[in-house]
Amino acid sequence: MKTVFVSSTFRDMQAERDMLNLDVLPALRARAGEYGESIDFIDLRWGVNTGNMSEEEANRKVLKVCLNNIDRAKPYMLILLGERYGWMPPRDLLDDASNEKGYNRKFSDESVTALEIEYGALAQEDLSNCIVCMREPLPEDEMDEASRRDYKAESSEHKIRLERIKSELKERLGNRIITYKVGWDSKKKRPCGLEELSKKLIERFTQLWEADWKSSRSREWQEVELRRSESFFEENRRRFSGRDDLLASYLADILGPSCNLFILEGETGSGKSGIMAMLAKMLSTHDCTVMPFACGNGAASVTAEDFVKQGVWYIENRLKSVEGLSDEGFSGERLSPLTGEEQQQPPEAWCERFSRLCEMYEQTELPPLIFMLDGLDKLTKTEILRTFAFLPKQMGDKIRFVVSCASGFEIPQVSAVEHSIRRLVPLLEDKAQVREVAEGILKHAHKGLNERVWTQLLQKTGTKNLLFTSILLWRLMIMDSDDLAAAKSGDALDDVMIDIIRNSPDDLSGICRAVLQEAALRIQGDFAHTVLSLLAASRNGIRTSELERIFGVLGIEWSTLSFARFTRYLAPYFIWREDGRLDFAHRSIRESFEISDGETQSMHKAILSSLLELPDDDGIRRTEGFYHARMADDFPAFLTLLASMWPYSLDMERQREAIQAAQSVLALCMEDNGAWVSQGIERYKHEEAFCRASAFLGNVFSHATIYLSQKETQTGITVLMSAYTAAWIRYGSASKQDISEEEQLLLPVLAERIGSCWRRLGEERQAENYLKDAAEEFQKLYAYSPSSLNRSNYISSQYNLIQHYYKAQQYEKAYELLLELEEPCDQDFREEQSVQAVGRIASIRCLLAEVCHKLQKFTVGVKVAQSAVGLFEIYQSMTEDTAGISNIIDAREMLIEFLCIENRKTDAVAEQRKLCSNLEQMCRRMPDLSNTIHLALQTTKLYEWLCELNQMEEAVEAIQALSSLHRAIFDAAPTVANLSAMTAGCYLAGCRLSEAGRFEEAEEYLEDAVAGAQTLCAQQDDAQNRQRVEKYMQYLENVRKLLEQDVQSKKIDEKGSSDMDNNLAQAQKTFATFCKMMEAREWSFDKDEENLRIKTGVRGDDLAIHVNVAIDPERSLVLIYSPLEFNVPQEKMMDMALAVCIINNSLIDGSFDYDVAKGSLCFRMSMSFRESLISVETLDYMMSYTVYVVDEYNDKLLMLAKGMLSPQQLMESMNK
C-alpha cells in the first residue's frame, strides 16, 4: 500500500480536501487495484482524540499525531497552499515535538502546517515523491466579509511567513509545482471549479507510481489477483481488533487432525472477513502456507472456476521449488504453464487438474497449504460452486480449506462436506466488544473519537452487527466541508458527529440506505438514485453499457463522469463481476434500497428492453432476461427469449448454456408452481415464437431434471404439459403440408420430453404413454420424410422407449425394437459419422448386448458386444475424454462374459488383456482408488486364466503387475484387508518367479511378503498369521538356497544339453522315488514312465478323490493336481470365489484353483527338486496332505455349489 500525507491549513482548504476524497483518491484506488495495489490518503481534519485533555495536552497530542503520520506516509506527501499560514502553537510545544523526532527546526515560531512541510518535505534531500499545489488568490470582490476572514491571510506577519515557505518550495521544485486557479461559489460560500486540479493530481500521482505499476504488467494474471486478495485480507486484518477467544477456538479447529474443510458462516456484517483475515495471519505463523482468495474482489475472482485456475497456478509454483521434482511431477503431471488452447479447457478439466496437483502436493515435504476463500456467497452461481466441485477429490493432511459464507448460503450435501467443521460467527456481544472492534477500524483510518462521541455511538443497537458499525463509521469518515462548516472547535466537531450518529437509523438496512442516499447527493442526486434503483431491481448487477442504454430508454441523460465518480466514491459498497456487471457488495445493501412498486416495474421494463436489444448469445440476456420479463409481467418478451435459446438446445457444445437458461426459467416457475408460464403459454399459443419457445423448454427441461429436486421436476412437467396441450390445439389437426418442419416436430418432442421427466420421477406407467406417442409420431415423420434429422429423432425416441421397456423387464419388446433400429442406425453411422451419431449407435449396441444377456442369446451377444466395443473405440478417438474409456471398459467386460459363456477362453484372454490396458489408461487419466481396485480385480482374472492356459511367462508379468497394484491400494488406503492382499500378492509373485527360475526377483517379493506377514501378526497374533509367517519365511529360505545354488551353477562351465540331461535324470529319480513310495504305502496307481505321469485315487469320507501327479523336468517341479468332480453353477460364482479365498487363506501348503468360466475346481500343490532330490517322506507328505485337504473340503464346496451352504456358514464351520 502507498500512503500519502495531506498537509494544508484546514479552514480554507475544505473544498480541496473534499475533492481529494470524492474524486482523486477513488480514481487512484481504482487504477492501483488493477495491479493488486492500494492507495490511502491521511486527512487529519478530524479524528485526533483529545477528549478530557487540557488545551496544552490536546495541542501536544495533535503535533505528535501529525509527525507520526508523516513518518508513516514517507516518502509521499501532498501539500496544498492557499493564502493562510495556519495555527501557530506555543514555541515549547513545537520544540518538544521536534526534539522527540530528533529534528532541528529552522524557525523558532511557525505554524503546524509549516512544521509539517519542513519536516516532511524540505528536510528531505529528494522531493520527487512530494507534490505541491499552490492556489492563486481568490476573487475577494465576490466574497462576503466572513468568507474573506476564513480564506485570506491572518495578518501581514503570517503572510510573510507563508511566502517564505512558498519561496523555498519553488526553489526546490521549480516548474513541478502545480499552480491552480478556482472560482467562488457565492451560494455555498466555497471555492469551485476544482475539476482541472483533480485531473492534474490524478495524472501526477499516476506518473509518480507508473514505473512501479508497469513493472507488474509482466506478472501473470493469477499473481495480480493473488496480490489483490492479499491486499484485501491485509486491509481487513489491519481494521480488525479483539475477539481473541473466538479466533483461538477457530484456529484450534482448523489445525485439528480431522479438519480438511472449515466453514465459517454468519449473517451479513457479522465480521467474517475480518476473522478470515486474522486467521490467515495466525495460520502463517503456525508453519502453514496460506493462499487467500477474496471472492468477488477482482474481475478474475468472481467464480469458483477462477479460484481453481488460481489454485492450479499457485500449487504449480510451489511444486517447482521441490528439489528433484521434474517437470513431469510425481505421476506424469506436467508442471509447465498451460498453452493457450489448454487454458480454454472446460471447468471440469480444471477441477481435475487442481485435484491431481493437490495429490502431488500431499507427497512433498512442503508445509501444510491452506486455501482461504472469503465470501462464497459473492461468487457467481455456477455448477462448480453449487456442487463444491472446486474441492479436491481426496484431501490428506497437507491440504485444507477454510471458507466463509453468509447464513443461508446453500452448502451441498457432498462427501467432502460430510466431515467438515461448521461454525457460526456470533454478533458482537456487548459494548466493550463493539468499541474494541470499532477502534480497530478507526485506527486503520488514522482516526479516533472523543468519549462523548463514543457514548453516542455505543447507544446504537445496530452496532452489534459489524457491517452496521463499519458503515456508520464510514459515514463519519466522509464528513465534508458541509458537515464541518459549523465546527469551529473540537467540541463543536464532536457535536456534529453526535448529531450524525443520533440521526442515523438503528438497523442495517436503514444505515445502508441513509449512507447511500447521502453519498448519492454528493455526486448528482437524480443520476445516482436512478443507478441505485436499477441495481436494486437487478439480481446480479448491470453492465455499464447497459446502464447507459437503459438511461436512454428512461429518457435520462447519461454522464460517464458522474458514473465514474459515483462508483469510485462508493467503491466499498460495490463489486465488479467477471462479465463487467456492477453489483452491490452485500445483499443487505440491495435489500435496503426502497423504491415504489410502480417504479420497480418500470425499472424492470427498462432493463428488459435493454436486454432484448442484445445479441441472442449474450450471457446476461440469457440468464437475466427471463427474470426481468417475469417481473415486468411481459410474457411475449418471455416467449421471445425462450425462442432465441432454441438453437442452443440443439447444439451439444452449447447445451450447458441452454440448461443454465432452463434452470433460470424453472426457478421462476417454482415461485408459483408454473402458473404464470402455463397461463402465458395458453394465452399466447398463436404467437410466432410459441413453437421454438416450447421446443426449447422440451429439449432442456428433460436434461435439466438431472440436477433438480422431485418438486422442481414436477413443476417442469406442469409447464411442458401446458405447452403440449397448447401445441395439440394449434397443430394437432393440421396436415403436414400446412405446417413447417419445426412445427411438425413440436408434438413428438414435447411428448418425449414429458415421458423422460416422468421416468426421472420413477413413474414408468406415465412415462410409457408419452414415450410411445413420441416414438409413433417420429416414426410417421421419418416415413413421411426420411431426412437425417427425422432419422436421428426416430432413433432417439425408439431408444428412450427401449430403455423404458428394459427397466420394466420387458426384454422381448426391447429386443424387437432394437432389431428394428439396426438398419436406420447403420445408415446414420454411414452418412453422419459425427460424435453424436457414433455415441448414439454405440450406446444402442451396448443396450442390445445387455438385452441379449437377459434373453440368453449369447452367440448373438458376442457379435453385438464386439460391435459396441469397436464403436466406443471410434467414439473415444473422436472425443478423447474419460467417458469414452469408461464406455469401452463396460462394453468389453460384457464381451468377455459372453466369450466365457461360449467357452472361447483364448478369445476371452485376448480381450482381458485389452481390458487391463483400458483400465491402465483410465487410472492414468483418473488416478482414483476405485479405478485401481477395478484394475487389480481384472489383472487377477487375467493371471488365473494365463495359468490355466499354461502361458506362464505372461502370467508372471501379470502377477508382478498385480503385486504393484496391491501396493498402490495399500498406500492409498492402509487397512488390514489391503495389507493382507498386498502381502499375499507379494508371496504369490515370489512363488511364480521362483518357479520361473528368477530367484533374485523372487527373493525381493518374498522379503516384502514376510515383512507384511510379520506386520499382520503384530496387529493380530493368532495361529493363522503365525503359520503364514512361518510358511513365507520357509519359502524365502528355500529360494535363497536356490539362488545360491543358481549362482554357483553359473560358475561351472557346463553346456545346455548336459544341464537338461541332469534335470531329466533328477526328474526320473524323483519319479522312481514317488512310485516306490506309492508301492510301499500300497496305493493303487497308473504310471506313464515316458511322460513321468501318475494317476491314482481314493474314496474319501464323502466323495471320490482323484489325484494326478506330474514330474516336470524342465521346471524341476513335482506337481500334484486333484480335480473335484462337479461344476459350479454361474449363479453361485461369487459365493464360490469367496469360499475358495477363505479356504486358501487357511491352508499351509497348496491351494484350490477355481476356473470361473468353466465352473471347475481343482486342488494344486507343487515342490521344486532343482539341484536336489526330494525325500520319500516329503513326497508322502505331499500326497497325504493333498488327499486330506480335498477330503476335508470337497463336500462343503459341493454343498455350497448346490446352495446348501453359504460362505458365512463355511467360515463358521472352519472356526469351530
Report on the architecture of this protein.
There is one protein chain. Helix content is 62%, strand content 9%. The strands form five sheets. Strands 16-17-18-19-21-20 form a six-stranded antiparallel beta sheet, with helices on both faces. A five-stranded parallel beta sheet has the order 2-1-3-4-5, with helices on both faces. A five-stranded parallel beta sheet has the order 9-10-11-8-12, sandwiched between helices. Strand 20 and strand 21 form a beta hairpin. Helix 21 crosses helix 22 and helix 35 (788-807) runs antiparallel to helix 36. With 1216 residues, it is an alpha/beta fold.
Question: Can I get a quick summary?
Answer:
With about 1200 residues, the protein is of the alpha/beta class. The protein is built from 50 helices and 21 strands. A hairpin with a 4-residue loop joins β17 (about 1095-1100) and β18.
